[in-house]
Structures are given as C-alpha cells and as structure tokens.
C-alpha cells in the first residue's frame, strides 16, 4: 500500500498577505507534488485545512496499517518538499511506518507535530 502525503493547501504562514497569488500551502503542495512524481509507493493529495493554522505549512503522512504522522511549520521550499517526499518513501518501505531517527532527512527534523497509531484491523 502506498504512503499518502496529504498537503494542506489553505495554509498561510505569518506574513502572508491577501492578494498573493498562491497560499503558502498551495505553493508547498505544488512542490511536494513535483518531488513525488514517479516515486514508487508515494502518492499525494490536497486537502483544505488540516487545522494546524498556528504551525503552517502542514502535511499528514498515512498508509493503511501503519503509524501516521502530522508535520508542520514548513517553509514552502523545494528542500522541504524533497525532505517530505524522501521521508514518505522511507515510510512506504517499512512494515510499521516507523523510520529510525538516524535515517530522517534533515529537512523534516523538528517538524513532527503528532503521530497516530494505525486503526485496529
């Protein structure tokens, strides 16, 4: 089963101004989608509001039967997007969704907000 990256496309970081073409979440979503293109075991989707507004930009990582994670406080940069996708690829390759800390991409360290155990079968 693939790991799904859900990207909040309505996130607006401090300093975002009305009239800006894209929200910060939309900008991050576009970067994550581009970085995930062609990566086996990783898919993306957008969702309006993950309710983490005070720590925007937010994403969730999920796969059936695996530990799920919410991450936030990202800048909408290519480096952040690549780190998110790299972590999602590693998540997809595990049986449990738990990736050892020493393997985490530097771009995602310090961005974990919550983790959720898988739902019972």
Structure notes:
This protein has 121 residues and is α+β, with helices and mostly antiparallel strands. It has a single domain, classed as 3-Layer(aba) Sandwich (Glutaredoxin), CATH 3.40.30. The protein contains two helices and five strands, in the order βαβββαβ. The chain has helices spanning 24-36, 78-93; strands at residues 3-8, 42-47, 59-62, 68-71, 112-116. The protein starts with a strand and ends in a 5-residue tail after the last strand. The model has no long low-confidence stretch (mean pLDDT 93). It comes from Jannaschia rubra.
- Give the number of domains: 1
- Count of discrete alpha- or pi-helical segments spanning 4 or more residues: 2
Strand coverage percent: 15-25%
Structural class designation: alpha+beta
User: Uncertain runs with pLDDT below 50, 5 residues or more?
Assistant: none
Rg for CA atoms: 14 Å
Lateral arrangement of strands in the main beta sheet: 2-1-3-4-5
Q: Tell me the major beta sheet.
A: 5 strands, mixed
Q: Which whole number gives the mean pLDDT?
A: 93
Please name the CATH architecture.
3-Layer(aba) Sandwich
**CATH topology, anyone?**
Glutaredoxin
Q: How much helix is in the residues?
A: 10-25%
N-to-C order of helices and strands: EHEEEHE
Task: Tell me the name of the CATH class.
Answer: Alpha Beta
């Amino acid at each position: 089963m693939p790991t799904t990256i859900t990207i909040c496309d309505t996130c607006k970081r401090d300093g975002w101004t009305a009239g800006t073409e894209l929200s910060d979440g939309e900008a991050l979503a576009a970067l994550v989608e581009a970085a995930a293109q062609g990566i086996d075991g990783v898919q993306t989707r957008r969702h309006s509001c993950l309710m983490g507004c005070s720590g925007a930009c937010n994403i969730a990582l999920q796969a059936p039967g695996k530990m799920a994670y919410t991450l936030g406080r990202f800048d909408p940069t290519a480096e952040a997007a690549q780190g998110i996708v790299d972590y999602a690829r590693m998540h997809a390759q595990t049986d449990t969704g738990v990736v050892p800390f020493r393997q985490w991409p530097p771009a995602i360290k310090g961005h974990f907000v919550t983790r959720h155990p898988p739902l019972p079968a």
